[in-house]
Amino acid sequence: MRITVLSGGVGGARFLSGLRAAMPPPESSISVIGNTADDIWLFGLRVCPDLDTVMYTLGGGIDEERGWGRRDETWNAKAELAAYGVQPTWFGLGDRDLATHLVRTQMLNAGYPLSAVTEALCARWQPGVRLIPMTDDRVETHVVIDDPDAPGARRAVHFQEYWVRLHAPVAHSVVALGADEAVPAPGVVEAIKDADVLIVPPSNPVVSIGTILAVPGIADAVRTTSAAVVGVSPIIAGAPVRGMADKLLPLVDAEVSALGVAEHYGARRFGGLLDGWLVDQADAADVAAVEDLGLAARAVPLYLRDPATSAAVAAATLALAADLAT
Ligand code: GDP
Ligand code: CA
Asked: Could you tell which of 6, 10, 55, 232 is best to mutate to test the pocket of ligand 1, judged by most ligand atoms within 8 Å of the CB?
């Protein structure tokens, strides 16, 4: 069975660790198309937070509590940079993590595309999935906010500044700069077209899944694949489990609810992206309305608390896909 998953950072990675446990190789192969619109250049280094979260989580190197970055991390380089007074000081660059960005940047500077670099980094981490960036081209999410330094004015900031430095203030619009001209990385469209099951995990619908789908050719591949396409709600009882999806969903005219996100993605039979949708038990009352959208729907526990709950969510996702395929 070939399974392909579109993934952001923490939500995607936690789902994937459950999926890998629920469906161990060699019976299955899992391809992951990772969001790169969170990427940022810092101190001359290319940082890919979502790719690294997936790689570290599946490779056993993640700090489980934070959900990002390396376990047993130290922060000496960050403190030294701050002592020099160099900006930005708000981004968490740990000493261990820095090695990843150094290797990545060195390879990029030598001319390798990000997809090849990611494959090389994964040779160390052995994530048990094929991790492919959505594109080798530069795409960056920027968010328009009220300028904190100039009352009455607005300013566009990089997504990382919006989230990490400013803690998600009110946003007026969000744009994936460069997405229109980006090309899917080698293997991305094939991984969607050749899949038996395509999964949209509980990643952020706007700045993780939305940016992947914004790369020309990817959404079309999702619409036309012969795979069953199933999604898992990142919204439980009207709120994101973590992160800022509640601030960003209104910008794409989506309601902050499991039903609202289902409506945002839409049913493939009506030109949308999904065939099936899982909501949490807390949203069981939404199942009928999700089905009215043209989606197969089920309510199951959707908190990804630990390996066992993640594996159960993944198993429920595969079960829904299996029912759709018959
Ligand atoms: P990020 O790139 O690190 O922000 O991670 P993702 O985009 O992959 O995932 C963020 C989304 O995951 C948020 O919208 C959260 O609501 C959702 N999420 C986080 N933890 C859970 C969980 O335990 N269950 C579900 N259903 N969603 C979750
Ligand atoms: Ca992210």
From this structure: 10
Q: Which residue is closest in CA terms to ligand 1's atom 14?
A: 204
Q: pLDDT tens digits for 7-55?
A: 999 999 999 999 999 986 677 899 999 999 999 999 999 999 999 999 9
Angle between helix 114-125 and 95-109 (nearest 10): 140
Helices assigned H by DSSP within 161-306: 188-193, 209-213, 218-224, 245-248, 258-265, 287-292
**Residue among 204, 21, 7, 232 at smallest CA distance from 118:** 7
Indicate the domain borders of the chain.
Answer: 2-34+189-325, 140-180
Ligand nearest to the CA of 47: 2
Which distant-in-sequence residues (6+ apart) come within 8 Å of 172 by Cβ? 144, 145, 146, 154, 251
Identify the architecture of domain 2-34+189-325 in CATH.
3-Layer(aba) Sandwich (3.40)
Helix (H, G, I), strand (E, B) or coil at 33: strand
**Paired tokens of 206:** 């706007």
CA of 123 to the centre of ligand 2 (A): 22
